[in-house]
Amino acid sequence: MRKATVAAVISGIFLHTSLLYALGERTLVLGAASSWKDVETRKDIAEVAGIRTNPVLTLSSVRSGDDPALDMALSFDEGRPDLFSDKTGHYRVSASPALGGVNYRWSRAGTGAALFSLEEAGRSGAEGPLIISPQTPAALLYSGRHFRDFSIEFWLYPQNMESGEQVLSWSATRQTRQGANTFQRIQCIVAKNRLNWSFLDFFSSPDDGRQMTLNLSGSPVLPRTWSHHLVRFNSDTGILEYLVDGRLEGVVYATTTGREGGEVYIPVAGDGGTVVLGGRFAGLMDEFRIYGRYNEVPQLSKYPPLGGRIETRPLDLGERNSRVLKVEALGGNFSSGGRNEYAGSGRFRFANNSMVQFFIRTADNPWMTGESEWQPFEPGTDFTGDIRGRYVQLAAAFYPSGDREAAPYLDEIRVVYQRDDPPLPPSMVTAVARDGAVDIVWRSSPDPDVSGYLVYFGTSAGDYFGESTIQGVSPINAGRETSIRINGLENGTLYYFAVAAYDRMNPANAGNFSREAIARPLRMVE
């Protein structure tokens, strides 16, 4: 009686374990502590630290650096001031210990911004916290360079806007045609909460070398608020303009008449010129750029209007015909100034109209061909259709807020699935020799979803590439039967046999081989 009870318990444990193995859910995790290495395609998407415990995926606010008119580009995204550099390679950048930096949470674009301290700037020496010097003749401000159109732009987040603060300064010396040395300067300083620009002897007559000084001023700039500043020059008309947040604030003409018409003076860079940023300034600066053209439309929004997209590589679920039950996504919404709305697992549609749309497709091959097309889905919701395949691929389209100042982010993605493990092999396989045939008999597989059996045979152990002149090549589909006679075999040849079970009427999802059985067909004595 005791033996029977133990046998029943062991049998129950085996059946329960088998069912759990067949029906149990598994989870594949992307993001969070698992990293985003499986996201292989990223269009206008950045991986950003500082928003959550682990890096998140969000829309990229990084400005493109492949504009052929770009002369200088400082993004301040390098993480440390001593690594700040000009992306064009035209200028050499030197940072003093007085310069600091902030991360993505406080930058206007990209993943960082420069932090200037008025107190520390006074201790950094006469040169200033950030010195930029031309190092190639291609630089607009290279010694002796004559050029035509130009634009200077940057984002500014002033701490106080105190009068006398100096945001930018460029100075050089130039020899006139009469042999005298003259001093040149471009300066941007704060006065009465405004930025005031002066161009001292920067514009010169192409005919006789005469120079002129021009001044521009804008409306008051709010402290502790990001604002965009653009100065641009058109050499066809001689117009020099100053724009704040895209609004035209000041206009002067580098012409002999002081208005459109007359001789146009053009920019000339003197010798030994250097740019000093934040010489006496407290606050943040981001995306400082100089162009060799007149910029018609400044880029003011933080994020691209069409958003961005990611696609994962094909993720291997381990077995053909595995079923994806649902995909959970965790994340939130992030906007300028460090405002973080963490939503956890949700629909990823936010009140500011930013959103993420998700897509899925599956296949039994890693090339994702011939099976299914991209299907949109709602994260966290059980799939109503049969989403099956060994490989699953996910995509997500990120869209910014209506004002393009906020963007959604993904913290983690979880793929919940059932792996379609092939059934366990049958047991007690025996082979009985006949005349030109062999009878194969086996005990059923213990898995509940077995749909049939494949019988493999061959003339070498473990190599099942045999052929029957009557029933064809190995393997032979026995259906749900637990025995089969294979006819058309060669008498006197030793054959090796194994049986594998398959499920859901899918012979391609056959399980492991049973133990091997051996038989040699012989002509029987009458």
Radius of gyration equals 37 Å
Helix content: under 10%
Give the overall average pLDDT.
Answer: 89
H/I helix tally: 2
Low-confidence stretches at least 5 residues in length (pLDDT < 50)?
1-22
Instruction: Tell me about the largest β-sheet.
Output: 8 strands, antiparallel
How far apart the termini lie comes to: 49 Å
Strand content is: over 45%
Overall number of strands: 37
Secondary structural class: mainly beta
What is the overall silhouette?
elongated
Using brief descriptors, characterize the structure shown:
526 residues; 8-stranded antiparallel beta sheet; 46% strand; mainly beta; 37 strands; disordered N terminus; 2 helices
Report on the architecture of this protein.
This protein has 526 residues and is mainly β. 5% of the residues lie in helices and 46% in strands. It has 2 helices and 37 strands. Strands 5, 7, 8, 10, 15, 16, 17 and 20 form an 8-stranded antiparallel β-sheet that branches. A hairpin with a 4-residue loop joins strand 15 and strand 16. The longest helix is centred in the first third of the chain and has 22 residues, at 2-23. The protein is elongated. The two termini are 49 Å apart. Residues 1-22 have low confidence and may be disordered.
